[in-house]
Amino acid sequence: MAVEEGTILEGTVTGIAAFGAFVRLPDGESGMVHISEVADAYVRDINDFLKVGDTVKVKVLPGHNGKISLSIKKANPPKKPSSKPMDIDWRSSRSNASSGPASFEDLMSKFMKDSEERLLDVKRSQDHKRSGYAKR
């Protein structure tokens, strides 16, 4: 039985590479899920999302040169955001921040710290490249 474009099937991950994952389909054929088709979010390391032996729902995409292309993110439609606004308790005190969700100030502080660390890394990288050029 040939796999038809647009069908949604369930398969098993049989192998993982830096560029994607190989999935065995129910009829015994294998296809590949490119790393860009694994999740809606940016996937830096596919191992964070999949591992060998996982059962995944995939959608068959148009193939190239007789190969079967698959997509996990197109097989699972995105959740529609609720039109109802979120209920946020703005009255919570800072003392409760450690036991509950982080406060805005805590989140902003963490963001600023991470941002400064990234900027330092970039500056170090640029300085290293500049100093290497002068030594030639």
From TrEMBL:
GO terms for biological process: translation. Belongs to the bacterial ribosomal protein bS1 family. It comes from the Bacteria. The lineage of its organism: Bacteria, Bacillati, Bacillota, Clostridia, Christensenellales. One of its GO terms (molecular function) is mRNA binding. GO terms for cellular component: ribonucleoprotein complex; ribosome. Pfam families: S1 (PF00575). It comes from Gehongia tenuis. Residues 6-73 form the S1 motif domain. Residues 93-103 have a biased composition (Low complexity). Residues 69-103 are annotated as: Disordered. SUPFAM superfamilies: Nucleic acid-binding proteins. PROSITE patterns: S1 (PS50126). Transmembrane segments: none annotated. Keywords: Ribonucleoprotein, Ribosomal protein. InterPro entries: NA-bd_OB-fold (IPR012340), Ribos_protein_bS1-like (IPR050437), S1_domain (IPR003029). This is S1 RNA-binding domain-containing protein.
